[in-house]
Amino acid sequence: FHKSKNDVSCARYLSSYFEDMRSDKELVSAINGGDPDAFEVLYLRHRDWTVNLAFRFTSDRELALDVLQETFLYLLKKFPGFTLRAKFTTFLYPVIRNLALNARKKNQRYELVDDKLEELTEPVEPDVEENLEDQLRMVMGNLPVQQQEVLLLRFVDDHSLNEIAEILEIPPGTVKSRLHNALRALAENPRTKTYFEKE
Q1: For residue 110, what pLDDT band results from cuts at 50, 70 and 90?
Q2: Dihedral of CA 171/70/144/151: which sign?
Q3: Of 3, 38, 124, 194, which one has the greatest count of Cβ atoms within 10 A?
């Protein structure tokens, strides 16, 4: 298998952006100074994270890609004059969340009728024994959205409690309360209490 000249040049092009050592704040300053390449670096650096976060809220890959585009269009409109006062991902998180939830809401309106029709026509499948991971996902899906969000930010994204408070714009005490209630619900649920039992 031989790569075409276009493939090689594209790889070099992308590599040059991923190797850019400037911080996000430095890139923002460069964009404000009229450097168009700096915006592409910022986009390539954070696009996968943005899509994954959007997918977390939409559960739809196409919608997540739409959110990616809308997120960076929103960001582009802030230049010149945009000032980054926190981590770039901390700034983007509420933007992505709001765009994703709005996208999901709009999409659900169109799919509601189709879903109801499918429920009437789909055959009933026999129960399949769930593994622990499926059970955990199902129980988490029944938690309040605020508790789900704190759990994912803490244990999937590995943010500290103070970082979560900053991202969600709520007091640290509220973060602790939501996390405590979420973990207690998981520990008490028969489907997921295995995760919390000491050996």
Answers
A1: low
A2: negative
A3: 38
pTM of the full predicted structure? 0.71
Q: What is the DSSP string of 183-194?
A: HHHHHHSTTTGG
Amino acid in the structure at residue 153: L
Mean pLDDT of 28-49: 95
Type of residue numbered 142: N
The pLDDT assigned to 97 comes to 93
**Is the distance from CB of 180 to CB of 191 less than 8 angstroms?**
no
**Exposure letters 141-170 (e unless 16+ CB within 10 A, then b):** eebeebbbbbbbbbeebebeeebbbbbbee
- Residue 22: what are its φ and ψ, rounded to 5°? -65, 145
Q: Tell me how far apart the alpha carbons of residues 74 and 172 are, in angstroms, rounded to a whole number.
A: 28
More confident call, 123 vs 15? 15
In this structure, what token pair is assigned to residue 109? 């309106």
pLDDT for residue 79 is more than 60: yes
